[in-house]
Design a protein that fits this description.
Helices cover 40% and strands 23% of the residues. By secondary structure, it is an alpha+beta fold. It has a four-stranded mixed beta sheet.
């Protein structure tokens, strides 16, 4: 089961996030969609991964909490930039996990 943050970011290219989310929950492929997750690696703030990787059940089970969804890799990178800027402007730092925990 995928873990979605209650207030995840959605890129402007994503037209029906609830439908995409439902498809991902059922293990169906959603080409062109990228997910932004909290990173398990302490050296990274966030990670971008293709939704196609979640077709494998083991990958879906290990997926960290999803905090954003975008259409295309470029939009995903733009969304990450926006998220980091927002976090820094609101907290004055880069404590991403703490920010999402309290959001």
């Amino acid at each position: 089961m995928l873990k979605w943050h209650k207030h995840y970011y959605t890129g402007s290219g994503v037209k029906n996030s609830s439908r995409i989310r439902r498809r991902l929950e059922h293990g169906n492929p959603v080409p062109g969609i990228y997910l932004i997750t909290l990173s398990d690696n302490p050296r990274n703030l966030l990670e971008i991964l293709s939704a196609l990787t979640l077709i494998q059940e083991s990958a879906a089970d290990m997926c960290p909490e999803i905090v954003g969804i975008a259409k295309g890799k470029e939009e995903a990178m733009d969304l990450v930039t926006e998220m980091i800027r927002t976090i820094f402007s609101e907290t004055g730092g880069f404590e991403v996990k703490e920010y999402w925990k309290n959001r």
